[in-house]
Automatic annotation (TrEMBL), chain A:
GO terms for cellular component: chromatin; RNA polymerase III complex. It is found in: Nucleus. CDD domains: RNA_pol_B_RPB2. Residues 53-431 form the RNA polymerase beta subunit protrusion domain. It holds the Pfam family RNA_pol_Rpb2_3. DNA-dependent RNA polymerase catalyzes the transcription of DNA into RNA using the four ribonucleoside triphosphates as substrates. Second largest core component of RNA polymerase III which synthesizes small RNAs, such as 5S rRNA and tRNAs. Proposed to contribute to the polymerase catalytic activity and forms the polymerase active center together with the largest subunit. Pol III is composed of mobile elements and RPC2 is part of the core element with the central large cleft and probably a clamp element that moves to open and close the cleft. GO terms for biological process: termination of RNA polymerase III transcription; transcription initiation at RNA polymerase III promoter; tRNA transcription by RNA polymerase III. Keywords: DNA-directed RNA polymerase, Metal-binding, Nucleotidyltransferase, Nucleus, Transcription, Transferase, Zinc, Zinc-finger. Its EC number is 2.7.7.6. The keyword Magnesium does not apply. Component of the RNA polymerase III (Pol III) complex consisting of 17 subunits. Its main location: nucleus. This is DNA-directed RNA polymerase subunit beta.
From TrEMBL, chain B:
Coiled coil: none annotated. One of its GO terms (biological process) is tRNA transcription by RNA polymerase III. InterPro entries: RNA_pol_III_Rpc5 (IPR006886). GO terms for cellular component: RNA polymerase III complex. This is Uncharacterized protein. Pfam families: RPC5 (PF04801). It comes from the Eukaryota. Residues 40-66 have a biased composition (Acidic residues). Residues 16-30 have a biased composition (Basic and acidic residues). It comes from Spathaspora passalidarum (strain NRRL Y-27907 / 11-Y1). Residues 1-66 are annotated as: Disordered.
Length: 1155, 295
């Protein structure tokens, strides 16, 4: 057995969730069953998810960072030199995370992630480096030096859960279905959301037709710097613009500075032999001639004169010419760094930009689309971490260097200086820097002057789906307030890459997206071997190509990551050969190649952050995946990667997709003039994980699917297998979650059927009682008694027992008792240890942790040394429970956090049954609140005595057009009668005809309608009622959390008005618009009462003589009590007068009689 | 560039499958020509003749049949230490303008890999005589210069020879580097520089008479000896190269023409001096690709 196969076997064994794939019977199919390729090719999808998983993009990116990128960073910053001692150096040789050099395969055993969650710690692994440095005259190599700790992404290859089977996961208190891909920092789970941005190092041409401006821009991004270069038109002349050059440089001058001195050659490079382009371009030569710039040196001087120099301290002053060379070599188009005298590549790049501008001037349709997914790159956790780490590492090195210099500067040292002794001082900086950035989400990078906030988010654990949805989320860098529709619109190129339904409503609509089910995000690949390969495949190196033939008809430029590396005259053959190599696995599967005939170019992309997806290769009108391959897959002989290696399936990114013809179904494959090149694996993969829950979504009006995507994340259900071991701030569990009667293939793939969020309710679509207007639902009381919609809410309360510098500390103390020896009311839930007893009921105003704080904590330990105060006095600071309903103490955890202070977590639980006003929703964006709860005996029932759990008003259907919901009901009903679970997979699923057939066979109406009897009169209802099971979700919005009323209560200190908000027992505001109504109505007394008497009435003494306020019937200004009049004004008005007085404005009141 | 009388092959001879004999598949009829001559750059404007070594014989498509198979021989310059082979390209120079008239001067900065060729200038056509007065110098020569780009084993010159028996053979000689030679207008820069210098001097003179002496009281810099090195540290890579280039002195080369005796001798040697071992490859195609990818 080849080793590779063996490896995949091992992986397979470790992942028991997929074991059933290899069982003789899987999803109702036996090994001996006939295989229908058209039907069964969807089996590739579970195989894909087995290898890739839903959060593979995060894991891949993080793995790439810790395994590859860290080493590159170390390499780029490997030397630390001293300014003082020229002999001294320290060189980093290697870096590793989580294991030492001697044992490359033995990972250090980290603290299990669940313990980190519970104890508010960071799940991290040490970073080891090997260094070589000088001590005196000796060179010393030191291995395994720890320079800090790196937060570890769960289930990445550095995590202890990597490759763990279900038993191991259970041992670590982890849920085997948990996807991982997040960090645990200080006990909270943090996700680094995928960020979408415009691709780096590529030319983007844009045009403003109104202003007649065309601009080509490129954002250059390297490890050292990030800068943007523009080639723009101004009055039909072309200039180069860059931030560090104070004025725009005419294009001809910049090309001359880059060594293309002859005008003929410039013309050839930019325009080729096209007379249209030449006519457009010639004016630019006049500009250069007018400025008398003819030679390279003159051009360099011209540029150098205009460079804005930011000289670092100690850097030598450069001459104008040197400034010019520096600008051309490193500043302009910074990602192409020239390190020798050959500037041709740079010149060509600028010329290409100019050419694109000229082409767009001639034909405005040649602009690029910013919103096109092929022009976007996704930035993942790994990339962001690498930016952060490099910044911290540089800081670490410069701190270290400063420290060494300080020591080395001293002329005489007592002992030989060992640099490593001082390196450990700074190791905390890296650890803390990484922790702080992840826990706050503020990514501040000094070298790019970048400040980004909100990069990380707390992983939402409302339900399994909400956590999954968060892991696949992509946020855009666009500003939400800008009123442009383009970035928000659904792009055709999104097909199969980003979910078409899952986006929030409101301000972030279209800016926050979700990955589709079968996608992969690339990581960076090496560029150099690809370039060499191009030359071997018949690409002429660009340095040897002469300018006259560069743009000849039929001569295609070959661009690797946007940079022209050569030309070919046989682009078709070239691309074909390249693809052949990729399909045979010689080149990484994620390198894309495509031809752009408009630009006469072949583009090869090896950069990271491109979204791609697998497709079946079609050759000569035949799908390359055949029945025998699928059989191998089913038997477990093949994994997904075997399909890749054998060239049956390949990954395409968006750009390459545009170069292919993809058949949706096998019967669409044709061999016409444009032959089919690929076949979709499964069409339902256009949707993402969250939208995949919807049954029959292809029958719904599209916004309804979008609404469901938002609501699916709010549904209460099972969170994880370890949900009862978790102590989170707030968790909701459904008491009896059920898997849906009508499921989808996606549901099975993402294990929603194992961790469901909802219940199958029997729904009657009819009008009942009038308490069902505006989508309100009628609930059956007996169903609720049986546990329908019942959920538990657990809330965490944290208490820390601090230690103080004077050796005093917080303590817990037992309960206090009354005269009968019973604990006083607030202490009723406490045990003798001063903590709530597990299982005890705790009511409003009772205490769950009886904490005492020392009264003399502030005193210094030294001052008190003279008189030892053994008598510690403490002050009571108990933690009270507050809430309208009592809770039960579920768990109490005592532990020690990392600063050696005791940490107590008390988990309080409430069990809630549905009540009026609780929110429910089906899976079709149809939400409603409970309007009435009816006794079962009053509800209608059918022949078999079944009465509905929910009655839904039929008015919910016509305007919403959620036909999928109706089909779900019929399929569900057929499934119930037949004893099967039916499928409502998008673009497929159980057919309505078949379902109706089952209904008829079982003696029901084909339409799903039943004859019902009124529960009140016992008479048969006058219409047949649409009656059957629909999966309903209970949403997290519950009345108990929102109900609020106030008669009297707390007031704000300053204004004496009632406080605001439910949490502060606030009042309900009679706002501006309500006030207007009362004014219009003329209810002046009501106005007075609402705005003053019930709010902030204040009795003031006003002196009628001076018009100012006094007190105690005494006017301080007039020194008399003669003209004092008492009256009531709003406290806010009084405050205004006082504030005006404080700024030297005297508001004087003149009082007169009304009557 | 215009089609010249040179031939160059752009394929690596290793690029063949294991089983088959090395062969050239000629898609375009090669033009008879002369190979480039070591250290004696000459006209080399060429149309690349696509002589492709096919790696996959079996999958040869119908529209691209094998016309003829020619055995391959490899040869190198007679003495690798003394001689090297380069392709010189003259972008912007018309094909019609031959390079064999007049006297040529060539010089090189070997460390910086920078070649300069001085070519006699035809002042009879397209030449503004009045400008010469401005520039104040008799311009008799055109200076062409360019960087030698190492070809990294990718470029070979080849000559397809037919011997007396009608057997054809192709001789391959690897090229060390290619260079595109562009005109540099040093005389303009020279004028600029002298004007600049003059201005500076004038300014300095004015400055001297008026300026008050400022005494600097700064403390001595730490580590003056490191400054030499430190200076290089702070310069960018490109500037370092420029600095090195400026410091390096030109070494002169002698230019031999096409008809020169030495030239012809070397040409002959290149064609016939091959060890007449027919090239077969032992590198398997897969290994070759693997080597390529893993490098």
């Amino acid at each position: 057995m080849p080793p590779k196969r063996k490896a995949s076997r091992v992986a397979a064994e470790s992942d028991e969730a997929f074991q059933e794939l290899f069982q003789p019977e899987y999803k109702g199919k036996k090994l001996t069953d006939e295989i229908n390729t058209a039907e069964d090719k969807w089996n590739l999808l579970p195989a894909f998810l087995k290898v890739k998983g839903l959060v593979k993009q995060h894991l891949d990116s993080f793995n790439y960072f810790v395994d590859t990128d860290l080493k590159k960073i170390i390499k780029a910053n490997e030397l630390v030199l001293s300014d003082v001692d020229p002999e001294f150096y320290l060189k980093y040789l290697d870096i590793r995370v989580g294991h030492r050099s001697k044992t490359p395969n033995d990972k250090l055993v980290l603290m299990p992630p669940h313990q980190c969650r519970l104890r508010d710690l960071t799940y991290s692994a040490p970073i080891f480096v090997d260094v070589e440095y000088t001590r005196g005259r000796k060179i010393i190599v030191h291995t395994d030096l720890e320079i800090g700790r790196m937060p570890i992404m769960l289930r990445s290859n550095k995590c202890i859960l990597d490759g763990a089977d279900d038993n191991t996961m259970a041992r670590y208190d982890e849920c085997p279905l948990d996807p991982g891909g997040y960090f645990i920092v200080n006990g909270t789970e943090k996700v680094i959301l995928v960020q979408e941005q415009l691709s780096k190092n590529r030319i983007i041409v844009e045009a403003d037709e109104k202003k007649g401006i065309v601009q080509a821009s490129v954002t250059s991004s390297t490890h050292e710097r990030k800068s943007k270069t523009y080639v723009i038109t101004k009055n039909d002349k072309i200039y180069l613009k860059h931030n560090s050059i104070s004025e725009d440089i005419p294009i001809v001058i910049i090309l001359k500075a880059a060594g293309i001195t002859s005008d003929l050659e410039i013309l050839q490079l930019v325009c080729g032999s096209d007379p249209n382009y030449q006519d457009l371009f010639v004016v630019n030569f006049e500009e250069a001639a007018r400025l008398e710039v003819f030679t390279q040196q003159q051009a360099l001087n011209y540029v150098g004169k205009r460079v804005k120099t930011i000289r670092r301290a100690g850097a030598p002053k450069l001459s104008q010419l040197q400034e010019g060379i520096e600008a051309i070599a490193t500043t302009i188009i910074a990602h192409l760094t020239v390190s020798d005298l050959q500037f041709k590549e740079k010149a060509l790049y600028i010329a290409t930009m100019a050419r694109r501008v000229i082409m767009t001037m001639h034909n405005p349709t040649m602009v690029d689309d910013r919103d096109y997914v092929g022009n976007k790159r996704l930035e993942l956790a790994g990339q962001l971490m690498s930016l952060l780490f490099e910044d911290l590492f540089k800081k670490f090195n410069s701190d270290f260097k400063a420290n060494i210099d300080k020591v080395l500067k001293k002329p005489s040292r007592t002992s030989e200086f060992d640099a490593l002794l001082s390196i450990n001082i700074h190791s905390n900086n890296i650890t803390m820097g990484l922790n702080r950035a992840i826990s706050t989400g503020n990514w501040s990078l000094k070298r790019f002057k970048m400040e980004r906030a909100g990069v990380t988010h707390v992983l939402s654990r409302l339900s399994y789906i909400s956590a999954l949805g968060m892991m696949t989320r992509i946020s855009s860098q666009f500003e939400k307030s800008r009123k442009v529709s383009g970035p928000r619109a659904l792009q055709p190129s999104q097909f199969g890459m980003l979910c078409t339904s899952d986006t929030p409503e409101g301000e972030a609509c279209g800016l926050v997206k979700n990955l589709a089910l079968m996608t992969h995000i690339t990581t960076d690949d090496e560029e150099l071997p690809i370039k060499k390969l191009c030359y071997m495949l018949g690409c002429e190196p660009i340095l040897g190509v002469d300018s006259a033939t560069l743009h000849d008809e039929g001569n295609f430029g070959i661009h690797v990551n946007g940079t022209l590396v050569g030309t070919t005259r046989f682009p078709g053959k070239f691309v074909e050969n390249f693809r052949k190599l990729r399909r045979t696995g010689k080149v990484s599967a994620f390198i894309s190649i495509h031809t752009n005939t408009h630009q006469q170019a072949v583009h090869i992309a090896t950069d990271g952050g491109r979204i791609c997806r697998p497709l079946i290769i079609v050759e000569n009108g035949k799908s390359k995946v055949t029945a025998e391959h699928l059989l191998k897959l089913k038997k477990g002989e093949w994994a997904f990667d075997d399909f890749l290696v054998h060239g049956l399936v390949e990954y395409l990114d968006v750009n390459e997709e545009n170069d292919s013809l993809i058949a949706l179904y096998e019967e669409n494959i044709n061999e016409n003039s444009v032959p089919t090149t690929h076949l979709e694996i499964e069409p339902f993969t256009v949707l993402g994980a969250v939208a995949g829950l919807i049954p029959y979504p292809h029958h719904n009006q599209s916004p309804r699917n979008t609404y469901q995507c938002a609501m699916g994340k709010q549904a209460i259900g099972a969170i994880a297998y370890n949900q009862f071991r978790r102590i989170d701030t707030l968790l909701y569990f459904m008491v009896y979650p059920q898997q849906p009667m009508v499921k989808t293939k996606t549901i099975e793939l993402i294990d929603y059927d194992k961790l469901p969020a909802g219940q199958n309710a029997t729904v009657a679509v009819m009008s009942y009682s009038g308490y069902d207007i505006e989508d309100a639902l009628v609930l059956n009381k007996a169903s609720i008694d049986r546990g329908f919609g019942r959920c538990q809410v657990v809330r965490k309360n944290t208490i820390q027992l601090k230690r103080y510098p004077n050796h005093t500390k917080d303590i817990l103390s037992g309960m206090r008792v009354d005269e009968h020896g019973n604990p006083i009311f607030p202490h009723q839930a406490l045990g003798p240890d001063g903590l709530g007893e597990v299982g005890a009921r705790i009511e409003n105003g009772q205490i769950y942790a009886n904490k005492f704080v020392p009264t003399n904590a502030g005193e210094s330990a030294l001052g008190g040394a003279s008189e030892p105060t053994n008598v510690e006095s403490h002050r009571e600071t108990p933690a009270y429970y507050k809430g309208p309903e009592p809770s039960y103490v579920d768990q109490v955890m005592m532990s020690v956090s990392d600063n050696d202070q005791a940490l107590i977590k008390v988990l309080l639980r409430q069990t809630r049954r549905p009540e009026l006003g609780d929110k429910f929703s089906s899976r079709h964006g149809q939400k409603g609140v409970c309007g009435i709860i009816v006794q079962q005996e009053d509800l209608p029932f059918n022949d078999m005595g079944i009465s509905p759990d929910i009655i839904m008003n039929p008015h919910g259907f016509p305007s919403r057009m959620t036909v999928g919901k109706m089909i779900e009901l019929i399929s569900g009903k057929a499934g119930v009668l037949n004893g099967t679970l039916e499928y409502g997979t998008c673009f497929g699923g159980s057919k309505l005809e078949d379902m109706s057939k089952i209904l008829v066979d079982k003696g029901f109406s084909y339409s799903g309608k039943d004859m019902l009897y009124s529960g009140i009169t016992g008479e048969c209802l006058q219409a047949y009622i649409f009656f059957g099971p629909i999966y309903y979700q209970k949403l997290k919005h519950m009345v108990l959390d929102k109900m609020h009323a106030r008669a009297r209560g707390p007031r704000a200190v300053l204004t004496r008005q009632p406080t605001e908000g439910r949490s502060r027992d606030g009042g309900l505001r009679l706002g501006e618009m309500e006030r207007d109504c009362v004014i219009a109505y003329g209810a002046s007394q009501l106005l007075l009462e609402r705005l003053m008497i019930s709010s902030d009435a204040f009795e003031v003494d006003i002196c009628n003589k001076c018009g100012l306020m006094g007190y105690n019937s005494w006017c301080t200004t007039c020194k008399s009590s003669e003209n004092i009049i008492k009256m009531t004004i709003p406290c806010a008005a009084k405050l205004l007068f006082q504030e005006l007085l404080s700024m030297n404005i005297a508001p004087r009141l003149r009082l007169g009689d009304v009557f | 560039m215009t089609p010249g009388n040179e031939l160059f092959v752009e394929e690596d001879e290793e690029m063949k499958s294991d089983s088959e004999e090395p062969r050239l598949v000629i898609k375009e009829e090669p033009q008879d020509g002369l190979p480039a001559v070591p250290e004696q750059p000459e006209e080399e404007d060429e149309e690349p003749v696509h002589v492709e070594a096919e790696e996959e014989d079996d999958e040869e498509e119908d529209d691209d049949p094998i016309i003829e198979s020619i055995p391959l021989y490899i040869n190198t310059m007679p003495s690798r230490f003394k001689n090297s082979l380069h392709i010189l390209q003259y972008p912007g120079r018309a094909k019609a303008r031959r390079l064999d008239q007049g006297h040529f001067h060539a010089s090189i900065k070997p460390q910086s890999k920078y070649l300069e060729v001085k070519v006699p200038l035809d002042t009879s056509k397209f030449f503004d005589g009045t400008k010469v007065e401005d520039w104040g110098e008799e311009i008799g020569e055109q200076t062409l210069s360019g960087v030698l780009d190492p070809s990294e084993g990718g470029y070979y010159i080849a000559k397809v020879e037919t011997d007396s028996e009608g057997n054809r053979k192709a001789v391959l000689v690897p090229i060390d580097s290619t260079a595109q030679l562009r005109t540099s207008f040093q005389y303009i820069d020279a004028i600029d520089n002298s004007a600049h210098q003059q201005k500076k001097q004038e300014q300095a003179e004015i400055h001297k008479t008026t300026s008050v002496q400022i005494l600097q009281s700064a403390a001595k810099h730490t580590g003056t000896q490191a400054n030499m090195d430190g200076f290089m540290h702070s310069l960018g890579d490109s500037l370092k190269h420029v600095k090195r280039f400026d410091e390096e002195s030109w070494s002169l080369l002698s230019w031999k023409n096409d008809e020169d005796e030495i030239t012809n001798k070397i040409k002959k040697e290149l064609i016939n001096g091959a060890d007449s071992i027919e090239l077969t490859t032992e590198t398997k195609f897969d290994d070759y690709i693997q080597k390529l990818i893993n490098e």
